[in-house]
């Protein structure tokens, strides 16, 4: 009779988050809560011009204000701080990398570029002094439009460049110009000879993620121990390397700590930015702690701007709706392009690579160009460049369906990848999953047939309701095979699992979460492995001195890679525990004959042969005598996990709207998703990722927009103007993951999710509006999706109809 | 982010004390009411007063009095209290419509009607509402008192007829006729956003159920809040059931209003929205007027 | 330039000479050392993360000067739990996973603690409208609404979606 576990496993089970107690009682430890005695406050003076030569900076008035310790300009630092690019923050891709320092040198290239910095004992005084810095500029012509930027004769953003093209790439047709040309010709021919072709220009505006906590950096310098820097970063290990290079500090004397609690990130805290470099530099110069805390205005001016792409996309299809070929020419507006690690262009790069999405499109010709303009550089945002490419293809598919007078749902299904694994025409590997199963579950759940009947009835009564679809095959973690060429960084998950003599567990991992609940879900994984309780497990993260090297919290790595490293390390330790126990009991056995449940280690082949987890662990750590041959004492293991294939997760979205045909106003009435997230570790956390991701996608699509005027002035630097969705503007999303399948490449079968969710939203929403307005034949291909845009389209459609 | 240096801060407990404080501190002083708009400007350093005179402890400025239908609202009365006061229903219900959707509930706990009127922000609810319902403002200075109709008081955005040394002490509304009703609605991109455009309608029905007096006030305009006189005339003689006349009047009001283009809406769509909002508030005002409620 | 003020926070009196221009949120965080109240926007006062109770009313502490709270009583998130016992909203937030990064949570809890003190049997719409002054970027608001419904909702306001999500949790 084998032991029957009393306690249910922890993976897949609802378990309240451990983080919540401190976060709901005001005991969180966010960046702004960290106080170092004697810390000085650094405030940036930012350019009021979008493009101008710096003629003169007068810091005398600022320096004269009592309490001001230092004022520095680009001239002060250009010889003291290495400029970027430095190798560790440069992708292995052929782009042009602009040279830049933390403060502008010679000229400013966007409204909000840091030009000078003031350090003072009091943060209010620092702002007074920043106001007192007088700068003389000589304005230069503004490069404000990405298409104009690439025209012959355009003014140039970067001195020394002959044009404003920072990056361009062909994603299809092999590696040589000859093979690409042949591919392009074939695609062209297929489109020309197709039964039907849909050509369109799809445009997505500038918008992004804006976590509620802005950025910050706090550095201390000690002559013997070196630099300690707290940075609101998703990637402390990468920041440490980069800071070491830029400031010439040997790596053993620099420690970067991502605060234990971070108020959201969503990608915007992943790059290696200007500001922390200057903070660290000033701390070393002044030999005093220096802190910069970003204001919301600074944040909206200089980061969180993403998407901003134009796609000229053409598809050719059979009269049944099966797409036979696709051609895309994408263009992205990358602002000044100055940003460590991502340089702004990696987002459109990946977006283009992911353009085929979950559709079986073997014949593609996809190219992008990335232009520099006088705007802030693009910074990573959830969905990482794919928000516009998803939008473009989803809209094209619906237009195809309309042309063929078919249901967009049917045309979509016809084109979904039927079996995995699959490699896209752009070379992206999709490891596993059943897209059709997930899709069919969505359609069944929303009862599309019933809705179509309701819709016809509504149209008869002059009410315009509609449904729109979008799908997303999203990266689930980023494998080394992708991350090394893309960012010169490894993709493995890494974790140290340390048992203590009381049978408790500490996990050390180098990622830096910002709300994803790692302390809980990782504790659940460990608890499941060892048969103990999640409250017996603590997770330490984000400190480069105490955690193994990891690439950080990006691309949904935690649920796919880091968690896998944790469970791998646990399993190594379990095998050791089993070997020692067998040896002690003088049993000939296989480590797999022991199970870890209910706080015991149990020999499954014989009743009552078991020991408490604690006693076995204590024996191995504290009393390492008479161990099996070749075995040492201690119970700690570090694992590095690399999946044997890059992995994905998949979701299908359906958005329901009602549109007022008089005013163009849009009401979002229902939103449903069907997800494949593999094995679910914590159901609430998984569902919450979808709620949050969809709402960000909705907010981006309907409400948010970064706007630069004709003088390059950024007009949307407060939450009054950059509007986020409030609770009253969005519904509760109906989330389903019944149709998921476990991932065969991770120990738990889990997939990482969260990062890519917003990508399917703009297609779903816009398709819903166009679907609702089918009687008018409206097609909307440009975002943001605003009532006035809809109204204008309706007006035009009515005018054309009247003219007939 | 942070205010510039503020040198003095006074907390008078009476209107007289407040006026004396202003006289003492001079023209580089600001009265602060709820601060929900003023503090934004001070923190942005758009204005940097050397002296602040805080009116939150001047008790006589707080409270709503109703006397046979006439209403006196102390200038420091919070939006929250206006929103909750059922005595305003009917003739002056537009005030409740407006007050209950300003900003958010935290703003409504602090923000005041007097503060909103004196600030006269381009995208504000109280200014056009007060014009629409025919409110007057009582102002007091060391030199005496005066009373101005809201539409005389409110000028172009951020400009009013208030002299620096004057304090608005109350918003007053005369006893309305028996069948009066008002309504207010705004449009913004997200829920309860600052209005891109907004409309207040006030309808006075004669005993025959036909409109004998109408006021339509539009806000969100670069000109400052304005009455739509042509639209008002088109409502004279109209009854509640005459939907097409109401619709026409709303369209006339919209067409005759000078609108501007900005990042939220262009001039044409603004007109479209004004027409839609006007039709809704006129219809609601008619319904409220027909109930014939006044205390 | 400076004024001597006395503010009671969570029952404790803080007396200090402060610059008149000091924001109330900075008094709370830097003078009283209570960092549970957060700053998420600049001068616009839109995000609501700084919401506290001023004499039992929910207000945004970034839109007030410390001197304006002289002689008055403030409750911050650290004072929401009474005598070590969590407020029902704090517990409900944990049960319903109503926070992810937690940066907006203090402001929401303080706003809703006031709102639900006098408003019960709330519909979903009423709850969502009351939350307009608190921006959240992580949760999409759904679980926050669920948590508030549990504490002060109208039983009939449990929507089908909420029910479905609850059952599958």
Question: What's the SSE blueprint?
Answer:
The complex is a heterotrimer of chains A (804), B (295) and C (169).
Chain A: H1 20-24, E1 40-46, E2 52-58, H2 60-63, E3 68-73, H3 74-77, E4 107-108, E5 114-120, H4 123-132, E6 134-139, H5 146-149, E7 165-170, H6 177-193, E8 196-207, E9 216-222, E10 226-231, H7 236-247, E11 254-257, H8 274-286, E12 290-293, H9 296-302, E13 306-317, E14 323-333, H10 346-353, E15 364-371, H11 386-404, H12 408-415, E16 422-423, E17 429-430, H13 435-446, H14 448-460, E18 464-475, H15 480-487, E19 493-499, E20 505-509, H16 518-530, E21 537-541, H17 557-584, E22 594-597, E23 600-603, E24 610-612, H18 613-622, E25 636-641, E26 648-659, E27 666-676, H19 683-702, E28 734-736, H20 761-772, H21 787-803
Parallel strand pairs in A: 1-12, 10-11, 14-15, 20-21, 27-28
Antiparallel strand pairs in A: 1-5, 2-4, 2-6, 3-5, 7-15, 8-13, 9-10, 9-12, 13-14, 16-17, 18-26, 19-20, 19-25, 22-23, 23-24, 26-27
Helix pairs in contact in A: 10-11, 11-12, 11-20, 16-17
Chain B: E1 8-10, H1 15-25, E2 29-32, H2 38-43, E3 51-54, E4 64-67, E5 70-74, H3 79-84, H4 93-99, H5 105-110, H6 113-119, H7 126-132, E6 136-141, E7 144-149, H8 150-153, E8 167-173, E9 179-187, E10 197-205, E11 211-219, E12 226-227, H9 229-235, H10 243-256, H11 267-290
Chain C: E1 2-9, E2 12-19, H1 24-31, E3 51-54, E4 57-60, E5 73-75, H2 88-95, H3 105-118, H4 124-130, H5 142-152, H6 160-168
Parallel strand pairs in C: 1-5
Antiparallel strand pairs in C: 1-2, 3-4, 3-5
Jot down its keywords:
heterotrimer; A: alpha+beta; Aldehyde Oxidoreductase, domain 4; five-stranded mixed β-sheet; B: 295 residues; alpha+beta; Uridine Diphospho-n-acetylenolpyruvylglucosamine Reductase, domain 2; Enolase-like, domain 1; 3 domains; five-stranded antiparallel β-sheet; 34% helix; 23% strand
């Amino acid at each position: 009779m084998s032991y029957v576990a009393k306690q249910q496993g922890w993976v897949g089970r609802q378990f309240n988050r451990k983080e919540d107690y401190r976060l709901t009682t005001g005991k969180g430890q966010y960046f702004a809560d960290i106080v170092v005695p004697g810390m000085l406050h650094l405030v940036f003076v930012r350019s009021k011009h979008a493009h101008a030569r710096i003629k003169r900076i007068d810091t005398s008035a600022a320096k004269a204000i009592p309490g001001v310790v230092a004022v520095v300009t680009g001239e002060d630092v250009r010889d003291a701080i290495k400029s970027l690019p430095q190798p560790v923050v440069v992708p292995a891709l052929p782009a042009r990398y602009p040279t830049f320092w933390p403060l502008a040198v010679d000229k400013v290239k966007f409204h909000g570029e840091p030009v000078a910095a003031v350090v003072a004992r009091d943060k209010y005084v620092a702002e007074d002094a920043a106001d007192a810095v007088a700068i003389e500029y000589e304005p230069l012509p503004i490069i404000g439009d990405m298409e104009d930027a690439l025209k012959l004769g355009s003014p140039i953003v970067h001195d020394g460049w002959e044009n404003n093209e920072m990056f361009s790439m062909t994603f299809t047709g092999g590696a040589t110009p000859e093979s690409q040309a042949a591919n392009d010709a074939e695609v062209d021919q297929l489109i020309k000879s197709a039964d039907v072709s849909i050509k369109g220009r799809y445009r997505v505006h500038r918008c992004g993620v804006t976590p509620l906590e802005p950025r910050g950096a706090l550095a201390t310098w000690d002559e013997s121990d070196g630099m300690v820097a707290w940075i609101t970063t998703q990637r402390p290990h990468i920041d440490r390397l980069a800071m070491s290079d830029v400031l010439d500090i040997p790596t053993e004397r620099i420690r970067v700590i991502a605060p234990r609690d971070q108020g959201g990130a969503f990608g915007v805290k992943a790059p290696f930015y200007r500001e922390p470099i200057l903070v660290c530099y000033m701390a070393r110069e002044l030999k005093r702690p220096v802190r910069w805390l970003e204001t919301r205005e600074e944040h909206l001016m200089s980061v969180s701007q993403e998407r901003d792409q134009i796609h000229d996309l053409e598809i050719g299809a059979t009269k049944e709706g099966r797409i036979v070929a696709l051609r895309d020419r994408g263009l992205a507006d990358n602002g000044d392009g100055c940003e460590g690690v991502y340089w702004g262009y990696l987002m459109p790069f990946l977006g283009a690579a992911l353009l085929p999405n979950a559709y079986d499109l073997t014949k593609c010709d996809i190219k992008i160009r990335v232009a520099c303009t006088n705007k802030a550089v693009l910074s990573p945002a959830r969905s990482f460049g794919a928000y516009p490419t998803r939008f473009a293809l989803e809209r094209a598919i619906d237009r195809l369906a309309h042309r063929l007078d078919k249901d967009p749902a049917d045309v979509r299904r016809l084109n979904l990848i039927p079996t995995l694994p699959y490699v896209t025409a752009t070379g992206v590997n999709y490891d596993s999953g059943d897209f059709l199963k997930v899709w069919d579950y969505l359609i069944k759940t929303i009862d599309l047939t019933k809705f179509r009947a309701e819709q016809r009835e509504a149209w008869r009564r002059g009410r315009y309701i509609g449904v729109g679809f979008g799908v997303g095959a999203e990266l689930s973690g980023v494998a080394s095979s992708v991350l090394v060429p893309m960012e010169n960084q490894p993709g493995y998950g890494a974790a140290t699992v340390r048992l203590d003599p009381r049978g408790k567990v500490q996990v050390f991992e180098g990622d830096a979460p910002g709300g994803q609940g790692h302390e809980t879900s990782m504790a659940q994984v460990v608890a499941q492995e060892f048969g103990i309780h999640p409250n017996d497990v603590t997770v330490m993260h984000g400190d480069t001195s105490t955690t193994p090297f990891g690439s950080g919290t990006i691309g949904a790595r935690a649920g796919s890679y880091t968690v896998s490293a944790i469970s791998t390390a646990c399993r190594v330790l379990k095998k050791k525990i089993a070997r020692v126990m067998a040896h002690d009991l003088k049993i000939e056995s296989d480590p797999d004959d022991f199970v870890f449940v209910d706080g015991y280690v149990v020999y499954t082949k014989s009743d009552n042969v078991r020991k408490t987890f604690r006693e076995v662990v204590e024996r191995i750590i504290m009393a390492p005598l008479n161990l099996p041959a070749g075995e040492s004492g201690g119970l700690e293991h570090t694992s590095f996990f690399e999946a044997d294939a890059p992995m994905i997760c998949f979701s299908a979205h359906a958005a329901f709207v009602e549109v007022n045909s008089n005013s163009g106003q849009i009401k979002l009435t229902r939103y449903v998703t069907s997800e494949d997230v593999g094995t679910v570790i914590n159901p609430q956390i998984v569902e919450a990722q979808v709620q949050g991701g969809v709402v960000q996608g909705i907010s981006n699509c309907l409400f948010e927009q970064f706007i630069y005027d004709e003088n390059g002035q950024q007009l949307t630097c407060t939450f009054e103007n950059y509007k986020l969705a409030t609770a009253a503007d969005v519904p509760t999303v109906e989330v389903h993951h019944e149709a998921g399948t476990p991932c065969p490449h991770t120990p738990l079968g889990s997939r990482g999710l969260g990062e890519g969710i917003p990508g399917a939203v703009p297609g779903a929403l816009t398709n819903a509006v166009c679907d609702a307005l089918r009687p008018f034949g409206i097609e909307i291909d440009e975002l943001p999706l605003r009532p006035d845009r809809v109204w204008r389209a309706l007006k035009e459609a009515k005018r054309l109809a009247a003219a007939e | 982010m942070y205010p510039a240096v503020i040198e003095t801060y006074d907390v008078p407990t009476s209107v007289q004390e407040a006026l004396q404080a202003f006289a003492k501190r001079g023209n580089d002083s600001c009265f602060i009411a709820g601060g929900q708009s003023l503090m934004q400007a001070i923190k942005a350093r758009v204005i940097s007063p050397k002296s602040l005179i805080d009116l939150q402890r001047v008790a006589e400025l707080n409270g709503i009095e109703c006397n046979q239908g006439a209403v006196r609202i102390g200038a420091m009365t919070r939006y929250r209290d206006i929103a909750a006061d059922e005595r305003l229903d009917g003739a002056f219900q537009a005030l409740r419509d407006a007050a209950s959707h300003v900003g958010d509930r935290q703003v409504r706990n602090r923000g005041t009607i007097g503060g909103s009127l004196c600030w006269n922000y381009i995208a504000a609810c109280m200014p056009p509402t007060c014009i629409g319902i025919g409110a007057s403002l009582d102002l007091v200075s060391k030199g005496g008192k005066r009373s101005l109709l809201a539409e005389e008081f409110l000028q172009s955005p951020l400009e009013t007829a208030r002299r620096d040394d004057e304090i608005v002490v109350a918003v007053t509304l005369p006893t309305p006729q028996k069948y009066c009703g008002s309504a207010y609605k705004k449009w913004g991109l997200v829920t309860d956003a600052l209005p891109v455009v907004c409309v207040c309608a006030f309808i006075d029905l004669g005993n025959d159920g036909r409109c004998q007096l109408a006021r339509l006030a539009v806000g969100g305009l670069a000109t400052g809040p304005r009455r739509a006189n042509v639209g008002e005339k088109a409502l004279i003689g109209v009854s509640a059931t005459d939907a097409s006349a109401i619709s026409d009047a709303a369209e006339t009001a919209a067409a005759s209003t000078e609108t501007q283009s900005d990042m939220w809406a262009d001039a044409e769509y603004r007109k479209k929205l004004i027409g839609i909002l006007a039709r809704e508030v006129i219809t609601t005002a008619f319904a409220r007027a027909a109930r014939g409620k006044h205390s | 330039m400076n004024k001597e003020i006395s503010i009671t926070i969570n029952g404790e009196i803080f007396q200090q000479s402060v610059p008149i221009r000091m924001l109330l949120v900075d008094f709370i965080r830097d003078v009283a050392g209570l960092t549970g109240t957060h700053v998420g926007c600049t001068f616009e006062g839109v995000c609501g993360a700084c919401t506290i109770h001023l004499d039992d009313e929910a207000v945004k502490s970034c839109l007030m000067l410390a001197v304006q709270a002289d002689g008055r009583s403030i409750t911050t998130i650290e004072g929401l739990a009474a005598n070590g016992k969590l407020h029902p909203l704090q517990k409900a937030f944990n049960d319903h996973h109503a926070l992810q990064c937690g940066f907006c949570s203090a402001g929401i809890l303080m706003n809703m603690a006031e709102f639900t003190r006098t408003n019960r049997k709330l519909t979903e719409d009423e709850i969502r409208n009351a939350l307009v002054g608190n921006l959240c970027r992580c949760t999409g608001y759904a679980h926050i609404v669920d948590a508030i419904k549990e504490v002060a909702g109208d039983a009939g306001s449990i929507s089908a979606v909420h029910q479905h999500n609850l059952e599958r949790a």
